[in-house]
Design a protein that fits this description.
By secondary structure, the protein is of the alpha+beta class. The protein has six helices and 14 strands.
Length: about 250
Protein backbone atom coordinates (compact mmCIF):
# COMPACT_ATOMS: atom_id res chain seq x y z
CA UNK A 1 0.00 0.00 0.00
CA UNK A 2 2.79 2.42 0.90
CA UNK A 3 4.45 1.67 -2.43
CA UNK A 4 1.26 2.59 -4.30
CA UNK A 5 0.88 5.81 -2.31
CA UNK A 6 4.48 6.80 -3.07
CA UNK A 7 3.92 6.06 -6.75
CA UNK A 8 0.75 8.18 -6.91
CA UNK A 9 2.50 11.01 -5.08
CA UNK A 10 5.23 10.97 -7.73
CA UNK A 11 2.64 11.04 -10.53
CA UNK A 12 0.91 14.04 -8.95
CA UNK A 13 4.27 15.82 -8.70
CA UNK A 14 4.94 15.26 -12.41
CA UNK A 15 1.50 16.55 -13.37
CA UNK A 16 1.81 19.63 -11.16
CA UNK A 17 5.32 20.37 -12.43
CA UNK A 18 4.09 20.23 -16.01
CA UNK A 19 1.27 22.67 -15.26
CA UNK A 20 3.32 25.10 -13.16
CA UNK A 21 6.26 25.35 -15.58
CA UNK A 22 4.38 24.82 -18.84
CA UNK A 23 6.66 21.91 -19.80
CA UNK A 24 6.40 18.23 -20.69
CA UNK A 25 7.28 15.77 -17.94
CA UNK A 26 7.64 12.00 -18.23
CA UNK A 27 7.14 9.04 -15.96
CA UNK A 28 9.34 5.95 -15.95
CA UNK A 29 8.17 2.93 -17.94
CA UNK A 30 5.01 1.72 -16.23
CA UNK A 31 3.43 -1.71 -16.12
CA UNK A 32 -0.28 -2.19 -16.81
CA UNK A 33 -1.32 -1.86 -13.18
CA UNK A 34 0.60 1.41 -12.81
CA UNK A 35 -0.87 2.75 -16.06
CA UNK A 36 -4.33 1.95 -14.71
CA UNK A 37 -3.53 3.85 -11.49
CA UNK A 38 -2.41 6.90 -13.50
CA UNK A 39 -5.59 6.77 -15.56
CA UNK A 40 -7.62 6.98 -12.36
CA UNK A 41 -6.03 10.37 -11.60
CA UNK A 42 -6.96 12.10 -14.85
CA UNK A 43 -9.99 13.85 -13.39
CA UNK A 44 -7.79 15.47 -10.75
CA UNK A 45 -5.82 17.31 -13.45
CA UNK A 46 -8.31 18.56 -16.09
CA UNK A 47 -5.77 21.14 -17.29
CA UNK A 48 -3.14 18.47 -18.03
CA UNK A 49 -3.06 16.02 -20.95
CA UNK A 50 -1.76 12.54 -20.12
CA UNK A 51 -0.53 10.47 -23.06
CA UNK A 52 1.22 7.10 -23.13
CA UNK A 53 3.77 5.52 -25.46
CA UNK A 54 6.27 2.69 -25.17
CA UNK A 55 8.48 3.18 -28.22
CA UNK A 56 6.33 1.28 -30.73
CA UNK A 57 2.66 0.65 -31.43
CA UNK A 58 0.76 -1.34 -28.79
CA UNK A 59 3.70 -1.60 -26.38
CA UNK A 60 2.72 -3.07 -23.02
CA UNK A 61 5.11 -1.13 -20.79
CA UNK A 62 4.69 2.57 -21.50
CA UNK A 63 5.79 6.00 -20.35
CA UNK A 64 3.23 8.64 -19.46
CA UNK A 65 3.81 12.16 -20.78
CA UNK A 66 2.20 15.06 -18.92
CA UNK A 67 1.74 18.38 -20.70
CA UNK A 68 -0.51 21.46 -20.57
CA UNK A 69 -3.57 21.32 -22.80
CA UNK A 70 -2.42 24.33 -24.85
CA UNK A 71 1.24 23.38 -25.27
CA UNK A 72 2.74 25.36 -28.15
CA UNK A 73 5.88 23.37 -29.01
CA UNK A 74 6.63 19.87 -30.31
CA UNK A 75 8.27 17.21 -28.17
CA UNK A 76 9.38 13.59 -28.24
CA UNK A 77 9.40 10.78 -25.74
CA UNK A 78 12.87 10.17 -24.23
CA UNK A 79 12.94 6.58 -25.49
CA UNK A 80 15.61 4.70 -27.43
CA UNK A 81 15.49 1.21 -28.92
CA UNK A 82 18.55 -1.05 -28.66
CA UNK A 83 19.12 -4.29 -30.54
CA UNK A 84 20.94 -7.30 -29.11
CA UNK A 85 22.53 -9.91 -31.39
CA UNK A 86 25.01 -12.73 -30.74
CA UNK A 87 28.58 -12.10 -31.87
CA UNK A 88 28.69 -15.60 -33.31
CA UNK A 89 25.32 -17.08 -34.22
CA UNK A 90 26.86 -20.54 -34.60
CA UNK A 91 27.80 -20.66 -30.92
CA UNK A 92 24.85 -18.74 -29.49
CA UNK A 93 22.29 -20.18 -27.11
CA UNK A 94 18.53 -20.15 -27.48
CA UNK A 95 17.70 -17.14 -25.33
CA UNK A 96 14.33 -16.17 -23.86
CA UNK A 97 12.73 -12.94 -22.70
CA UNK A 98 13.67 -13.93 -19.15
CA UNK A 99 17.33 -14.33 -20.13
CA UNK A 100 17.52 -10.87 -21.70
CA UNK A 101 15.70 -9.22 -18.80
CA UNK A 102 17.94 -10.99 -16.30
CA UNK A 103 21.09 -9.80 -18.08
CA UNK A 104 19.83 -6.21 -18.02
CA UNK A 105 18.80 -6.25 -14.37
CA UNK A 106 22.12 -7.83 -13.41
CA UNK A 107 23.72 -4.55 -14.43
CA UNK A 108 22.17 -3.07 -11.31
CA UNK A 109 19.46 -0.99 -12.95
CA UNK A 110 15.78 -0.60 -12.00
CA UNK A 111 13.10 -2.34 -14.06
CA UNK A 112 11.40 1.02 -14.55
CA UNK A 113 14.10 2.30 -16.93
CA UNK A 114 13.33 -0.52 -19.40
CA UNK A 115 10.23 -0.89 -21.54
CA UNK A 116 9.22 -3.92 -23.59
CA UNK A 117 11.68 -6.58 -24.70
CA UNK A 118 10.77 -8.15 -28.05
CA UNK A 119 12.49 -11.46 -28.79
CA UNK A 120 12.58 -12.86 -32.33
CA UNK A 121 14.73 -15.84 -33.31
CA UNK A 122 18.37 -15.00 -32.50
CA UNK A 123 17.88 -11.30 -31.72
CA UNK A 124 16.09 -9.08 -29.22
CA UNK A 125 15.08 -5.44 -29.13
CA UNK A 126 14.44 -3.51 -25.95
CA UNK A 127 13.28 0.01 -25.22
CA UNK A 128 14.90 2.17 -22.57
CA UNK A 129 15.06 5.69 -21.22
CA UNK A 130 17.46 7.50 -23.53
CA UNK A 131 19.56 8.71 -20.60
CA UNK A 132 20.50 5.03 -20.06
CA UNK A 133 21.47 4.27 -23.67
CA UNK A 134 25.22 4.85 -23.34
CA UNK A 135 25.29 2.83 -20.13
CA UNK A 136 23.79 -0.19 -21.86
CA UNK A 137 26.03 0.20 -24.92
CA UNK A 138 29.11 0.27 -22.70
CA UNK A 139 28.20 -2.41 -20.17
CA UNK A 140 25.97 -5.09 -21.69
CA UNK A 141 28.28 -7.62 -23.33
CA UNK A 142 26.79 -11.02 -22.50
CA UNK A 143 23.43 -12.73 -22.09
CA UNK A 144 23.82 -15.97 -20.15
CA UNK A 145 26.90 -17.55 -21.83
CA UNK A 146 26.45 -15.82 -25.18
CA UNK A 147 28.67 -12.89 -26.09
CA UNK A 148 26.56 -10.24 -27.75
CA UNK A 149 26.66 -7.09 -29.85
CA UNK A 150 24.40 -4.22 -28.85
CA UNK A 151 23.51 -1.34 -31.15
CA UNK A 152 21.13 1.60 -31.14
CA UNK A 153 18.29 1.43 -33.67
CA UNK A 154 17.92 4.78 -35.45
CA UNK A 155 15.86 3.76 -38.47
CA UNK A 156 12.12 3.49 -37.60
CA UNK A 157 11.77 0.76 -40.25
CA UNK A 158 14.10 -1.44 -38.19
CA UNK A 159 11.94 -1.30 -35.08
CA UNK A 160 10.57 -4.70 -34.04
CA UNK A 161 7.10 -5.72 -35.06
CA UNK A 162 5.61 -8.29 -32.69
CA UNK A 163 4.48 -11.54 -34.27
CA UNK A 164 0.86 -12.56 -33.94
CA UNK A 165 -0.70 -16.03 -33.97
CA UNK A 166 -4.25 -16.23 -35.33
CA UNK A 167 -6.62 -18.32 -33.21
CA UNK A 168 -10.15 -19.13 -34.38
CA UNK A 169 -12.78 -20.72 -32.20
CA UNK A 170 -16.30 -20.52 -30.84
CA UNK A 171 -17.75 -19.48 -27.52
CA UNK A 172 -21.23 -19.17 -26.02
CA UNK A 173 -20.92 -15.38 -25.86
CA UNK A 174 -18.26 -12.75 -26.39
CA UNK A 175 -17.33 -12.42 -22.73
CA UNK A 176 -13.93 -11.69 -21.27
CA UNK A 177 -13.59 -15.07 -19.56
CA UNK A 178 -14.53 -16.93 -22.75
CA UNK A 179 -12.00 -15.05 -24.89
CA UNK A 180 -9.20 -15.55 -22.39
CA UNK A 181 -9.86 -19.27 -22.13
CA UNK A 182 -9.74 -19.54 -25.93
CA UNK A 183 -6.55 -17.47 -26.22
CA UNK A 184 -4.63 -19.49 -23.65
CA UNK A 185 -6.24 -22.89 -24.26
CA UNK A 186 -7.59 -23.21 -20.72
CA UNK A 187 -10.99 -23.80 -19.15
CA UNK A 188 -13.17 -20.77 -18.62
CA UNK A 189 -13.46 -21.51 -14.89
CA UNK A 190 -9.67 -21.53 -14.50
CA UNK A 191 -9.48 -18.02 -15.94
CA UNK A 192 -11.93 -16.53 -13.45
CA UNK A 193 -9.28 -16.19 -10.74
CA UNK A 194 -7.11 -14.10 -13.09
CA UNK A 195 -9.97 -11.68 -13.74
CA UNK A 196 -11.21 -11.43 -10.16
CA UNK A 197 -7.62 -11.26 -8.90
CA UNK A 198 -6.89 -8.03 -10.79
CA UNK A 199 -4.59 -9.56 -13.39
CA UNK A 200 -6.56 -8.76 -16.54
CA UNK A 201 -6.42 -5.46 -18.44
CA UNK A 202 -8.28 -4.31 -21.54
CA UNK A 203 -6.46 -1.51 -23.38
CA UNK A 204 -4.50 -0.88 -20.17
CA UNK A 205 -7.62 -0.60 -17.99
CA UNK A 206 -8.13 -3.06 -15.13
CA UNK A 207 -11.23 -5.21 -15.63
CA UNK A 208 -12.53 -7.44 -12.82
CA UNK A 209 -15.88 -8.50 -14.30
CA UNK A 210 -16.05 -11.94 -15.94
CA UNK A 211 -19.00 -10.82 -18.05
CA UNK A 212 -17.25 -7.79 -19.55
CA UNK A 213 -17.67 -7.80 -23.33
CA UNK A 214 -14.57 -6.59 -25.22
CA UNK A 215 -14.94 -4.67 -28.46
CA UNK A 216 -13.26 -5.54 -31.75
CA UNK A 217 -9.67 -4.30 -31.72
CA UNK A 218 -9.31 -4.33 -27.93
CA UNK A 219 -5.95 -5.49 -26.56
CA UNK A 220 -6.39 -7.89 -23.65
CA UNK A 221 -3.45 -8.55 -21.32
CA UNK A 222 -3.30 -11.25 -18.66
CA UNK A 223 -0.40 -10.95 -16.24
CA UNK A 224 1.67 -14.11 -16.25
CA UNK A 225 0.00 -15.46 -19.41
CA UNK A 226 0.45 -12.96 -22.25
CA UNK A 227 -1.77 -10.73 -24.35
CA UNK A 228 -3.88 -10.79 -27.49
CA UNK A 229 -6.06 -8.69 -29.76
CA UNK A 230 -9.76 -9.49 -30.04
CA UNK A 231 -10.17 -9.43 -33.82
CA UNK A 232 -13.95 -9.67 -33.75
CA UNK A 233 -16.76 -12.11 -34.54
CA UNK A 234 -16.65 -14.01 -37.82
CA UNK A 235 -19.97 -15.87 -37.76
CA UNK A 236 -22.62 -17.50 -35.61
CA UNK A 237 -23.06 -21.26 -35.61
CA UNK A 238 -26.36 -23.09 -36.06
CA UNK A 239 -26.35 -23.75 -32.32
CA UNK A 240 -26.04 -20.05 -31.59
CA UNK A 241 -22.38 -20.00 -30.61
CA UNK A 242 -20.19 -17.08 -31.62
CA UNK A 243 -17.31 -17.67 -33.99
CA UNK A 244 -14.45 -15.38 -32.94
CA UNK A 245 -10.92 -14.62 -34.06
CA UNK A 246 -8.03 -13.77 -31.75
CA UNK A 247 -4.52 -12.55 -32.57
CA UNK A 248 -2.17 -13.64 -29.79
CA UNK A 249 1.26 -12.08 -29.32
CA UNK A 250 4.02 -14.71 -29.54
Amino acid sequence: MEKDEFFLKRIRELANLSYQRDIVTFSDFLNLNEQNMVSSLKRQFPQIVMETFGGYENAERQMVAFHPDALAFTWEYPIDCLKIEPKAIKFSESLTHRDYLGALLNLGIERSVIGDIVVQEKAAWFFCQNKMTDFFLDNLCRVRHTNILITKVDDPDELPRPKLEAINGTCASVRLDSLISLAFKASRSSMVSYIEGGQVFVNGKLITSNGYEPKEGDIISVRGKGRFIFDGMSHQTKKGRCGVRILRYI
